TrEMBL record:
Domain IclR-ED: 114-291
Keywords: DNA-binding, Transcription, Transcription regulation
SUPFAM superfamilies, per database record: GAF domain-like, Winged helix' DNA-binding domain
Annotated stretches, region: Disordered: 1-25
Name assigned to this protein: IclR family transcriptional regulator
Compositionally biased region (Basic and acidic residues): 11-25
Record's keyword annotation contains Transcription regulation: yes
Transmembrane parts of this sequence: none
GO molecular function: DNA binding; DNA-binding transcription factor activity
One annotated GO biological process: negative regulation of DNA-templated transcription
Record has DNA-binding as a keyword: yes
UniProt-listed Gene3D superfamilies: 3.30.450.40, Winged helix-like DNA-binding domain superfamily/Winged helix DNA-binding domain
Length: 291
C-alpha cells in the first residue's frame, strides 16, 4: 500500500477528493452552454407555425438533458434566455407531468422519469447491453479494471454485464454502497431514492459504508456536481470503483458504467485516470443511443 492510499485510511473518498480543476471544468462547464442550442432570443422573430409555450417547454427539457448536473432556476433562465418567472411556471407544469424532477436542497431541477418511460414504449428499444459491450471490454483492457454495467429494475439494482463474469446478478441491498448505484441514485427524484432506501435499507457492508440518509444525500449531491460517483471500500474492503451514468436519446438515465480496482493499487493519480476513462466510456455508450 503506497503513502497516498495509506493517507486516506479512515476517510471515505468523495468525487471532490480526486477532481482537479481541469476535470471539474470538463465535467461541468463544457456541458453547460450559455444559451441552449436553437433558442431564439426574446424579440427575435419566431416561426408562425409554432406554439411558443410548447417550444419553450421543449427548450427547458433539452437544456436539462444537455447538462451533466442539476440546474437552479436562475441557471435555466440564463441558459435559455427566458425570464425567471416564465421558467418557473413551465417547470411547475413539467414537474406535475413527470418530465422534470426537483431536489429541494439545493433547490435545483433535472430530468424526471417520464421521458425514460416513454422511451421504453418504443418498439425499437435501445439494447444497452449489446451496444455497450464493446466499449466495456475496451475499458477493462485499457485500465486493467473489472468493468460492470448496471441498471435499476424497480428498486433492484442489477448487473447486466461484467467483464470478469457472465449473467445478471442483483446488488439488492448495495445500491448505496456502490459507485454504480450512487451514480444512478443521484439523478432519481427524491421519492424514488426514498423508495429504494425503504425497500433495501442502508446496510453496513464494510466500515466505510454510508449508513445514514443524510450522508447518502450529501454523497449524491457530490455525484451530481462532479458528474461521477466514487466507491471507496464501501462494498468490499479491498475495492474502490468509479461509476458514471448512461443516458438515452431523450437524456434520461438508463444505467451506469462502473470500473473497480484493488484498493491497495488505487492512488489518487490512478483514480483520476480511471475516472476520465469511465466518463469517456459512458459518453460513448450514450452517444450510441442517439444514432
Amino acid at each position: 500500500m503506497d503513502d497516498d492510499t495509506t493517507a486516506r485510511a479512515g476517510h471515505r473518498l468523495e468525487p471532490a477528493d480526486i477532481t482537479d480543476t481541469r476535470t471539474k471544468v470538463s465535467m461541468e462547464d463544457a456541458h453547460a452552454p450559455a444559451v441552449a442550442p436553437g433558442w431564439k432570443a426574446p424579440g427575435e422573430k419566431s416561426d408562425q407555425t409554432t406554439v411558443q409555450a410548447v417550444d419553450r417547454a421543449i427548450t427547458l427539457i433539452e437544456t436539462l438533458a444537455e447538462s451533466r448536473q442539476e440546474l437552479r432556476l436562475q441557471d435555466i433562465a440564463r441558459m435559455t434566455g427566458l425570464k425567471v418567472s416564465t421558467c418557473h411556471h413551465l417547470l411547475n407544469t413539467l414537474l406535475r407531468r413527470g418530465y422534470v424532477a426537483k431536489h429541494d436542497k439545493p433547490r435545483a431541477y433535472f430530468l424526471g422519469p417520464r421521458l425514460a418511460e416513454i422511451a421504453s414504449m418504443r418498439g425499437a428499444r435501445f439494447d444497452i447491453v449489446r451496444e455497450a459491450r464493446p466499449f466495456l471490454d475496451r475499458l477493462a483492457e485499457d485500465t486493467g479494471s473489472t468493468v460492470r454495467l448496471a441498471a435499476f429494475e424497480g428498486t433492484e439494482l442489477n448487473i447486466l454485464y461484467e467483464t470478469d463474469a457472465s449473467g445478471i446478478r442483483s446488488l439488492g441491498e448495495a445500491a448505496h454502497a456502490t459507485a454504480l448505484g450512487k451514480a444512478i441514485l443521484a439523478w432519481l427524484p427524491e421519492p424514488e431514492i426514498a423508495r429504494v432506501v425503504a425497500d433495501h435499507g442502508l446496510s453496513p457492508l464494510t466500515r466505510n459504508t454510508i449508513v445514514s440518509l443524510g450522508e447518502l444525500v450529501e454523497s449524491l449531491r457530490q455525484v451530481r456536481r462532479h458528474g461521477f460517483a466514487i466507491e471507496d471500500r464501501e462494498f468490499r474492503d479491498d475495492e474502490v470503483a468509479i461509476g458514471c451514468v448512461i443516458r438515452e436519446k431523450a437524456g434520461a438515465v438508463v444505467g451506469a458504467v462502473g470500473a473497480s480496482l484493488q484498493a491497495g493499487s488505487a492512488d489518487t493519480a490512478r483514480l483520476q485516470d480511471l475516472q476520465l476513462a469511465v466518463s469517456t466510456c459512458a459518453r460513448e455508450i450514450s452517444a450510441r443511443s442517439r444514432t
